[in-house]
Amino acid sequence: MDLTRRNFVKVCGLGLAGAGTVALVGCGGDTEQPADDSAETGGDTGEVANNQKPVIFFNRQPSNSTTGELDMTTLSFNENTYYVGFDATQGGDLQGEMVLNYIKAHAAELDRNGDGIIGYVLAVGDIGHNDSIARTRGTRKALGTAVEKDGNIVSDPVGTNTDGSSDLVVDGKVTADDGKEYIIRELASQEMKNQSGATWDAATAGNALQSWSSSFGDQIDVVVSNNDGMGMSMFNAWSKDNNVPTFGYDANSDAVAAIAEGYAGTISQNPAVQAYLTLRLLRNVFDGVDINTGIATEDDAGNVIAEEDYVYNEDQRSYYAMNLAVTADNYQDFTDATTLYATAQSQLDESASPNKKVWLDIYNAADNFLSSTYQPLLEKYDDLLNLTVEYIGGDGQTEANITNRLGNPSEYDGFAINMVKTDNGASYTSLLA
Ligand code: BGC
Ligand code: CA
């Protein structure tokens, strides 16, 4: 069955029942079904079965956390299931190149103990999270420290490797801009998971750097982190006072501001595009319009996303925003991470896009990026898109903590899901089936 069609009919019906001719916009003379006005208000969705409602996964892509293989069963749960994230490989590579360029330009002053080795430490977010894996790989690839296994760069943390003996990484070599050769070594890396199991844990990263620096501090020339939450915690715990360049990811406002104080760089994963897409796809399904309305093609209000800022991969049913490097050269343009996308800021007309109710969860209410950047953007976009969103914050540890709070899916018109573990798509879709 073609759900898009169903919703199309439903929205046209709604217009006829409610707001007269105004809402005929987009109905294009479609008269194949009589209107059913029982669905007049958002949330009263008696006629659409839960398993036919739109489901948007975001930030954590349904996939096998060991192999990275996409979970296409979840991603094709129904015709209106999509993933919204960003291009993890392009972003990881960009982060690695940003670090490499910095090392090349500053090698002589970076080598704090003058041993000819540029030593770095790496904070790993979550060993089973594809974004985290891509960033670890991108850093190792650019710095020449990568080891391959079965055609993939090994992304496991090394623990400590101050003597260069680990077989999970190798020593890299770089010719600095001044012509001198240096060795690059991954001195230490660790998954930053706290005792209760929460990953990407900022406090754990700060503590890890404290203990690394007290045992081999003079070898640490560069600090790299899979995200800014952990990066800022490391910067504040040690590297700021010791003038050791620290690189993160996410371009959260506090991290961008810290660039003025020596934080070396971060990557914007284009969160405004992602937050917009997360809610816009739901909106388009509700309205029964082409799924790329207001995305690839301008909507009636003038909203559109430029081609260079995202890609849609049809086989993967996934929209990916493109990443941008943020360094001392351009950080002024990124000071507020919650700024809306330049050409997607216009309010939709209520008659064509009537209010709908959405259930949305964030896997961990304490996640730095999601709570300080992504959710504030979602909250701005829900108004512009006429959506009433119920935000649920998880504990970052167990799926049940979140799924328990989706007691009555029939109350909602659509769902936006951020899983604790990327393997757990079925924990959500089973509630709708
Ligand atoms: C962000 C991290 C965040 C994670 C949560 C990543 O894309 O870069 O900062 O902790 O998503 O899933
Ligand atoms: Ca050194």
UniProtKB/TrEMBL annotation:
Cited SUPFAM superfamilies: Periplasmic binding protein-like I
Gene3D superfamilies to which the protein is assigned, alphabetical: 3.40.50.2300
Residue ranges annotated for the MglB-2 periplasmic binding protein domain, each copy included: 355-425
A Pfam cross-reference name: Peripla_BP_4
Top-level taxon of the source organism: Bacteria
Residues of the Periplasmic binding protein domain: 54-288
Name listed for the protein in its UniProt record: Substrate-binding domain-containing protein
High-level lineage: Bacteria, Bacillati, Actinomycetota, Coriobacteriia, Coriobacteriales
